[in-house]
Amino acid sequence: MKTFFLLLRMSGLVARTGRHHQRYEAGCRLIAGCIPFKHRNPDKGSNENSEKVVEVLMINSSSGPGLLFPKGGWENDETVEEAALREAVEEAGVRGVLMEFLGHYHFKSKTLQDEFSPEGSCKAAMFALFVNEELETWPEQSIRCRSWLTIPEAYENCRHPWMREALKNGFSKWHENKMTAGEAFPV
Fold first, then answer.
1. What pTM did the predictor assign?
2. Going by DSSP bridges, is the β-strand pair 121-134/28-40 parallel, antiparallel, or unpaired?
3. Which of 41, 69, 84, 111 stands the most exposed, by the fewest C-beta atoms within 10 Å?
4. In Å, how far from its chain's centre is CA 1?
5. Using N-to-C axis directions, what is the helix angle for 80-87 and 2-10, rounded to 10°?
6. Three-state secondary structure string covering the chain
7. Which of 31, 12, 11 is nearest to 23 (CA)?
């Protein structure tokens, strides 16, 4: 995976396009994505001992209203983790550390029907991504806007039910368990 990171840093950061290298399984297009997150200090006036506030990064959809988490096709020449990291850079302009696999989420895409998935069935592998770098420029910046939101705000603004499920039953439960256990996050 180190080679992949090096290539992303050295390349001109161009988004991959087309579906001829996409992975499929049992009629489903395989998708990789992440829920990028960071912690911020509580607002001024809060108790010093207040817990840090977790925020998740969402991007606008290029095909309609609502916000999304970065995700896209998992290609034949990469691992699912590499695909999730690539999508975070391409769509949201962030880099970070994959912390946890949050689960597989099934959905039907109205726009991603093709000969290998005629019904548009997709299976998304979602990860928690601790963000440690926000890029000033990224491949899809001309069509994507980033928004840092609290979990309730993200849930309310999320376009797709399957992404709300990943946020609520995957990310939120994982993050709460990690915080309750007092486990550290990367710096």
1. 0.84
2. parallel
3. 111
4. 18
5. 30
6. CHHHHHHHHHCCCCCCCCCCCECEECCEEEEEEEEEEEEECCCCCCCCCCCCEEEEEEEECCCCCCEECCEEECECCCCHHHHHHHHHHHHHCEEEEEEEEEEEEEEECCCCCECCECCCEEEEEEEEEEEEEECCCCCCCCCCCEEEEEHHHHHHHECCHHHHHHHHHHHHHHHHHHHHCCCCCCC
7. 31
Token pair for residue 101? 């696999």
Amino acid (1-letter code) at residue 56: V
Structure tokens at 79: 């691992």
User: Position 155: which residue type?
Assistant: Y
